[in-house]
Amino acid sequence: MSFYDSLGVVPIINASETYTNLGGSLMDPITLEAMREAAGAFVDMNRLMDAVCERAALLTRNDAAFVTTGAAGGLMLSTAACMCGENEALLDQLPDTSALTRTNVLIYDGPFRQMIPYWRLPRMVGAQVVPVQPSIAAMKAAIDNHTAAVLLFPGTPYERDVPSCEKTIAALKNSGVPIIVDAAAQLPPATNLSYYTRALGADLAVFSGGKHIRGPQSTGLIVGRPDLIRACRLAASPNPRIGRALKTGKEDLAGFITALETFVNTDEAKRYNRQVAILDRIASILDKRAPLVSVEKVAKGRLGTEQPLLHVTLPDYLTGEACNVYTRGTHLPPVDVGVYPPEFGMPRNLIFVNAYNLRESEAEDVAEAIIDFLG
Ligand SMILES: *Cc1c(COP(=O)(O)O)cnc(C)c1O
Question: Ligand 1: which residue has its CA nearest to atom 12?
Fold first, then answer.
């Protein structure tokens, strides 16, 4: 009996995204092996963190890096670092910020706030989040001596109706205010790991370890300015400060760094083509057996990243949401097909299929589930 069977939990085929609600991604066997090995010995955790963070900086071509618990942990530590710097007495007091003057985190007041609730995370370390009119001029004018950082969310749908990351960073670079980029899901390409910091000039960028990097689901990465990265580390476990609750174990660190190495060394054209081949297989089955749907290949992912997608338009009396309820809730094996949330402004009868988390052998299951739904 498999582990999931023993708990009565049914595995789901992930044809949608690296959603945390589904378990993020699947780790490579070599990542799991590194975790198993790391679990077999005690080490000096500070020494292990030094080594892992140094290698993460090297692999991502950044000046410095820190490995933490998810992009969410990364946003909390980044905020703490921007408020307190390396002042340990101030870090000791978080989330009490009464001794600080710079406690505001500025964000654009755009429609993305309904799509991704992660802009609330800086509050968890005591910062105030201040929405600013979505223009460069308003952002510049909003910066004052209470501003700890500006927080940006790249990605095509998130940047709709707000100035882009590129324009904002270029305009604010010399303002003296640290810029944090939440790039949790902005992968691939792997070059994005240094794009926001090195190419654009952001002070910190944050990535999920458990999404496209395919590390442990509980991991995340902060990259950028060495002094701010040192401050993140001071705020984090094993220190008894706000980030003690964001503890990474030796197994997490081993798994993350192994997954990161695999991710940056993967031939991106090969990975892309592997996904295309799976989507082609699904498309050809649907073309043959589901004349009611129209299938279209899309070159870029939901957030504008380098990922092919399949857009499947259902008959207009059906909704993508109903399709997902059926394929995931009734069909066996359960399949999570992609549904655009209403804020994306896509047709209600559209579903998407992303093969990032699909095995070749699952292509038919995905097509069958959609065909079954159509009846
Ligand atoms: C997923 C995501 C997060 C949270 O990342 P975790 O690694 O799950 O903590 C934060 N911001 C954005 C934009 C995300 O997509």
Answer: 184
